[in-house]
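Record 1 of the preview.
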Amino acid sequence: DGPAMARVLHRTAPDVVVLDRRLGDEDGLALCATLRSEPDAPEVVIYTADDSPVMDRRARAAGACGAVAKERDIGELFDALRLAVRRRATVDVLP
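->
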């Protein structure tokens, strides 16, 4: 669930996080927005069953790099993760 995920993320401080759109009864987009509002926030990729442009826009509005539909080729998830890592590396070198 969302609170347990937040505790793990705060303890481990990852560079990139893959969040499901639905976390039990929790909203993965809300957790994404909360994470991205914090200092030194991890990059986030939303993994979802919703393969629509609307979901991608909502994910980006929440601060995610984007959304990847579960029905897509796994290579698309890896591409999104590589993008997130590059974005994180760029943020880490800025003054």
